[in-house]
Amino acid sequence: MGKRIIAQQRGRSRKFKVRGFNHKGIARHNTLREKAGNEPLKGIILDIMHCPGHSAPLAKIKFEDDSISYILAPEGIKIGDSIESGNNITSAPGAISSLEALPEGTLIYNIETQPGDGGKLVRASGASARILSKTPEGIMVQLPSKKKKTFNPKCRANIGVVAGGGRKEKPMIKAGVKYKALKARNKLYPKVSGQAMNAVDHPHGGTRSSKKNYPYTVSKHTSPGAKVGKIAARRTGKKK
Q: How many C-beta neighbours within 10 Å does residue 161 have?
């Protein structure tokens, strides 16, 4: 049987469980609705934090009824800003509203696929979608992949662009950084075998001996019948 090449193996991974014990919270739309008289529910941004479970920073929000909620932080917000949740809102970054209440051309993120699910689509750092048109079938939205999808008008979304864009544009600089980045995602990173190296780089390197266990060297004072292999070698393996 053949074997998968490295490029094919890198895409495969074993069953991997995300370590969620150090996550700050779940980023989703609040379950609260508008107040009486269709007035939007207002909240204050208490903190903007890093969460290992998300590629974008999280914004911690405290609403008027003292409830705490987390959203994916959009570009252009800061601690102390006000966030509104409802249909009759002002178009500000991070505001939560249903798609039917937003004008065409609005940039949105964290879109619900079904009303009330908290947001499923367009959640990566730097991502955003755009409302194209409103039809009798629903609200047509262009996703970051340029694919067009029709949503229920009652589905909610955040206004703006997810913060953290350009996060992956920073060069890796060292192979060790790349290795750790792939290890966090349980992806394969190639390792060069010692036998494929040169003799100065690894004890198993070089083609002078087929025995790849430890350096086989003999003293120059040994008996004539035992003088085989590397005789009186000054050093073997990688130079320290």
A: 21
Q: Kindly write down the DSSP assignment for every residue of 120-142, as one continuous string.
A: -BS-STT--EEEEEEETTEEEEE
In a domain, 209, yes or no: no
Q: Which domain holds residue 42?
A: 17-168
| Structural domain contains residue 180 | no
Indicate the number of domains in the chain. 1
CATH of the domain at 112: 2.30.30.30
What is the model's pTM?
A: 0.72
Amino acid at 14: R
Question: What's the whole-number average pLDDT of the chain?
Answer: 86
State both tokens at 199: 């003799």
- Sign of the dihedral through C-alpha 100, 102, 107, 110: negative
Among 99, 22, 109, smallest CA distance to 71 is for 109
**Which of 189, 193, 234 is CA-nearest to residue 215?**
234
Question: Does 69 score more than 60 pLDDT?
Answer: yes
Other Cβ atoms within 10 Å of 240 Cβ, number: 4
H-run or E-run covering 107: strand 107-109
Cα Rg, the chain, nearest whole Å? 29
CB 165 within 8 A of CB 124: no
Structure tokens at 93: 């970054």
